[in-house]
Amino acid sequence: PLGCAGSTPVSGTQSLYSLSMKPSAKKHHIPSNQIVWTEKNALWYAEQYGDHISNDLTINNIELNPNDIVIDIGCGIGTAVNIASKICNKGKIYGIDPIETMIKIAKKNVDQPSNIEFIIGSAESILLQDRSVNKAIAINSIHHWNDYNKGLLEVNRVLKSEGSFFISSDIVNNDDCGHGKGPLHTNENIMRELKNAGFIDITLQDYTLDNDGIHLIQCKKV
C-alpha cells in the first residue's frame, strides 16, 4: 500500500507510510519528510512497487469469507482491497487512506468496484459507523499512524463484537518489523499495545514466499 494511514488527509503531499515493494523491503522505509506526493511521483511509485507479495500473503492468510465486511486501513493504491474483493464477493471492502492521489489511483485499479468503497481519511478518524465491519487490516501502516492509541480505539469502535484485526509488516533482516525505531518497532510492542487497547486472543505468525515474508499479528475485539 501507499500513503500514511495516520496522517491528516492531504491532497498529494506529506507523509509516506510503508509501501509494499518488490525488490527489497528495506527500500520502502523512507522517512516521511523525504517525500512530497504529486500525482506524477505517486503514479511512478505505484507502478514500481504497488503489487508486492505482502498484500497477497496478508489477504490469503486471514481467512476471509464471502460475506465479510472488511476495512483496509492505509489502503494506498488498493492492491489488497482488490484482492480481498474477489473473496468477499457477497460482502463489502472499504479502503481508507489520507492521501487523495492514492485514492484516485486505487479507484482506477479496482476490478470489481461494486463491493468496494474508498474513503479519504486517517486511522484516527475512520468515517464508518460503530460496529460496521467484522475484519480490519493494516498492511505496513500501523507504524506510521500519527496517534496509534487513537487509531486502535477507532479500530475497536468500527469492529463488530468478536471482529478480527490483522496487522502485517514486511520481514526485514535486522529490523523486527522493518520500520526502524519507535514505539511500535517490534512485534512485542505492538502486541502489548493491542492488549492495552482491550484486544484479546493476540497471536503472531510469520508467512514467507520465496525471498519475501510478513509478520502477521491477529487479535480480536471482545
Automatic annotation (TrEMBL):
<dbReference type="InterPro" id="IPR029063">
    <property type="entry name" value="SAM-dependent_MTases_sf"/>
</dbReference>
<dbReference type="GO" id="GO:0008757">
    <property type="term" value="F:S-adenosylmethionine-dependent methyltransferase activity"/>
</dbReference>
<dbReference type="Pfam" id="PF08241">
    <property type="entry name" value="Methyltransf_11"/>
</dbReference>
<dbReference type="GO" id="GO:0032259">
    <property type="term" value="P:methylation"/>
</dbReference>
<comment type="similarity">
    <text>Belongs to the methyltransferase superfamily.</text>
</comment>
<keyword id="KW-0489">Methyltransferase</keyword>
<dbReference type="InterPro" id="IPR051052">
    <property type="entry name" value="Diverse_substrate_MTase"/>
</dbReference>
<dbReference type="InterPro" id="IPR013216">
    <property type="entry name" value="Methyltransf_11"/>
</dbReference>
<protein>
    <recommendedName>
        <fullName>Methyltransferase type 11 domain-containing protein</fullName>
    </recommendedName>
</protein>
<feature type="domain" description="Methyltransferase type 11">
    <location>
        <begin position="71"/>
        <end position="167"/>
    </location>
</feature>
<keyword id="KW-0808">Transferase</keyword>
